[in-house]
Design brief:
The protein has 105 residues and is an alpha/beta fold. The chain has one domain: HesB-like domain (Hypothetical Protein Aq_1857, Chain: A, Sandwich), CATH 2.60.300.12. The strands form 2 sheets. A 4-stranded mixed beta sheet has the order 3-2-5-4. The chain starts with a strand and ends in a 21-residue tail after the last strand.
């Protein structure tokens, strides 16, 4: 199951107004906050599952989708886009890799 929250669709509509709608990839990202699911514009690759919703193409590696489903794309005015899924990520992250000296959490 793959969904997009109405407010997320509204933001995408605003972003792509007057432009071609490029495919949006959901991928496993990492950073100071730890691993999370992120969004980026990308092209279809072998092994992708494609979800066509409300005129948008969402791409996700099939194996990642199997681990994460159900998946919902959300938008919050304060934090921007995010992806909700059944995946459980550890608290914290790789602070030493971002140059904050391990003091970020």
């Amino acid at each position: 199951m793959f969904n997009i929250q109405p407010t997320a669709k509204e933001q995408l509509d605003e972003h792509f107004k007057g432009k071609d709608k490029e495919p949006i990839r959901i991928y496993l990202a990492s950073g100071c906050g730890g691993p999370r699911l992120g969004l980026a514009l990308d092209e279809h690759k072998n092994g992708d599952q494609v979800f066509e919703i409300d005129g948008y193409s969402f791409l996700m590696e099939e194996a990642l989708f199997e681990q994460a489903k159900p998946v919902t794309v959300l938008f919050d005015q304060n934090t921007g886009f995010s992806v909700e899924s059944s995946m459980v990520f550890p608290e914290g992250g790789g602070c030493s890799s971002c140059g904050c000296g391990g003091s970020c959490g």
